[in-house]
Amino acid sequence: MSDTSALLVWVIGGGALVVAALGVWIWARGRRIAGEHVFRASRWSRGNHLFPTQVAIAAQSVVHYTPQWFGMREQSIHMAHVASVEIDTNLFFSNVVIETSGGSEPVQCHGHRKRDAVEMKRLINQFQSDYYGPNRKHV
To answer: pTM for this structure?
Structure first.
């Protein structure tokens, strides 16, 4: 084997290794976060190709989680501060806009399936009803 052939094998092998490591990194950053009610956007939607955004809904809060190359962006809203939930259904995916009562910018989640968007709205309404209902546990 000549020196150029050996160099070519090392370059191709190193490139394949870098591509594999990059693939593992992207996969690891896009894993589903822990929680019972977690909704992950499709990788085929706008802004979610590498790192799909996720929304976790719990009895006390809504968390919008977006992974990045290094670190993450996480926005949390207490259930008492959710003013409205709007669903905008397009041809393939739905966008969910969660407005707060504090006057800050609304949380915008792009690329969810329609049934996930409807379930997100239902859960938020249910948890708000439980929060403000007759059996208030948050006092």
So the answer is: 0.77
